[in-house]
Structures are given as structure tokens and as C-alpha cells.
Write a structure and sequence with these properties.
Length: 437
Amino acid sequence: MRSVYAKLLLWSFATLVLALIAFVAVTFLLSFPPAGEGVVLRRLYSLELEQAREAYETGGRQKLRQCIDKQRQYLPGNRYLIDARGKDVLTGADRSRMLASASPADTPPHKQGPWVAAAVSDDGRYRLIVESRPPPVDVRSFLPYYLLIFGAVALVCWLLAVNIASPLRTLARTVDRFGAGDLDVCVNSARRDEIGELSRAFDRMAERIRTLLTAERALLQDISHELRSPLARLTFAAELVRTANDRDKAVDRLKKEIQRLTDLVSALLQATRTESDPSSVTLEELRLDDLLREVVDDSRVEANASGCTIHFQTSAALTIRGDRELLRRAVENVLRNSIRFAPRDSAVDVALDADGLNARISLRDYGPGVPEGSLTKIFQPFFRVDDSRDSATGGAGLGLAIAMRAVTVHDGKLWAENARPGLRTCIELPLIGAPAR
């Protein structure tokens, strides 16, 4: 069956039936409790034997009959006082066969069928034979108890089925609503068992999906806004090619706008590739100091063109595990951002050190810095501190966003802080052997 609710009820009912059968069997087997331990039986039968013997020897058969009848009033079964030859003292009947088949007095009675035991007097002159039969079992007398147990167990089984199946149904309805587009729905389960863990896992997943979809929608809006200006310039440049007197200059302008649009699209692809395809990240052991030195050397030409210099300092050889090209682009984007805002005749300080578990790259320029409220926003796609700048004057606003995503993929941290003067951007990456975050 496909219904968990029905399966639980079926298994609970099967358990109930088995428990009921077991209860009936145990009740039937325990309906005849044992007479007691062997020493108790032996003493009891010896006491009865002495009473019967005394009654016979002092009052004859009449008093013996009264004694045996009195014993039967308190204890079940028939009792016979016989002599050493097996002759019944009261009736004169031969009970030697019964005596031969009798069990010792200290033998526990059987729970089913007739049971015969014999006790012998100290002088060996008399024997007491006790013959008993278990009383019939009246199952109807136990019926109210059976029904009570049946109802109690059935109620417990029903509560168990409801307790397990009801939250699963609620979770299924929530998943259906979420799949239908209701992104604000959540389970909010307070259970502490596996079902509660599953519900909270769904809530966390739904929250991440909501965040991602919100970010994607905002990104699409930003992309549409960013593409509007280069497409307008591209249309204008194409019109110039057709109408301008200097067609070569117009073609160069057209190529330049096409290249800007191509760079913007490439940056967008680079910003989303690492998160959309984690398998594309190739992890390997690499020397972070060598990688940083390579990026600094490649950026010196751009720094010289901007009229600034790069000061690089490292304390030790540090080894991490990561994607070399992805980290290189991340550090390069941060360094180029520092070069872009560094004043002429100033320096960009690049330092590498470690705190035992993590490697830290610090990049500082001596420019105007960033308002405190924008320190975290500069890592968002298309965010610019100066809204008047566009991709032609201040970049597409994707460099730091690309760096943030690359560092996050490597379980690292990226943040910025005002150094007064200038801005300090820090990248923290776990060294080999450091615990994962």
C-alpha cells in the first residue's frame, strides 16, 4: 500500500492481534498457579497425613471421613488414606495402582489433566494420596478485560498512526503549495523527532530558495538596466557607421561598444558559473604566496598606467587547497579595484600572513574609502558607491561580486573596512589541515 497512514494502522492492528493471542495463551497457562515450592508441598501433605492418621486412630473411620471432608473444603482434590499394602483405610478399596503411579509429594502439580501425589508417614505405615484435576477455564469471565485491553491498545495504535502520518500529510501539502509557487509557505514544526528535523530541513531549503530567487530577480533587473546603456550606444554607433563622414572612426567606435558589451556578458557569466556549476571548480594544493606574487607582477603595468605603485609583502610560504584560476581572478579583481581608486603617486599595499589556521590577504589603497553603510553592499552585483558612474567610467560593478563568490566557494571570507585613509579589503582562506567551516 502507498499510504503510510494505512500501513501504520495495519501493522498496529497486526501487533494488537498478536498481543491478544499471546495474552489469552498466557492467561490460560497461568490459570493454574503451582502449589508452591517442593518443600512447601511436602510439609503440607505431611501435615494432612498426620491429621488424617490421628483422626483414624482416635475416632475410627467416621472421624477420618470428617477430617478428609474438612480438608477438601479448603484444598481442591480427593484424598485417600491407605496402608502400606495399598488398601484404602476408609473404604477398603485397593489403591495400589494409584499409589504406584503417584508422584512424590514435593513434585509441582500439572497444569493440565489429572494429577496424583503421595505422602508417606514417618514410620511407613500410612500413605496419603492426593488426586486433583484443574478446574475448567471460563474464557467468558476474562472477556471484559480482553475488550478493555483491546480498546486501550487500539487507541494507542490510532494515536501512533495520527502522530506520524498527520505531520507527513502537512509536510506534503506544504511541499505542493511551495511547488505551485507559494514561496512564503513553511512548516514551522516544533517536533523534536526525525519528522521535525525533516520539516526544519524543508524550511531551511525553502528559505535558501526564496533568497536565491529574490537575488536572481534582482540580478535580472540589474542586468536589464546595465544592458540598456551599452545597447543604446551600440545602436548610435551603428547609425554613425551608416551616416558619418569618417567611416573608419565610426567603425572603431562600433567595435569599442561591442567589446564593452562582450566584456559585460563575460563578467556576468563568470559571476554565476562557480555557483551554478560547482563541479567546474578544480581543487588542488597550491602555494598562495606564489599565486599572489604572480597576480601582483601582472598588475604592475596597470598600476604604473594609473600613476601608483604596488608594495608586496609576505611572511611565509603558505599552502592552501583551491582552484588556481578562480582564486587568481578573485585576487586580481580586488587588486584592480584598489588600483582604480588609488590616488596618483600613492601605493597599494598587498600583504600575506597567517594566524595558524587561515591565510589572510590584505589589500589597501589610500583613496577616498567607502561610506560605512556601503562596506557590505560593494560586494553585490552592479553596486556602485557613486551612482553617476556607469560601465564606461567606473566598471560594471561585478569585480568584487565575482571575488566574493569565488572566495565563498573556497570556504573563505571577504570583507572591506575603512583604513583612514583608504580602503582595506581582506581575503581569508583556510590553510591545509584547518577544519571546514
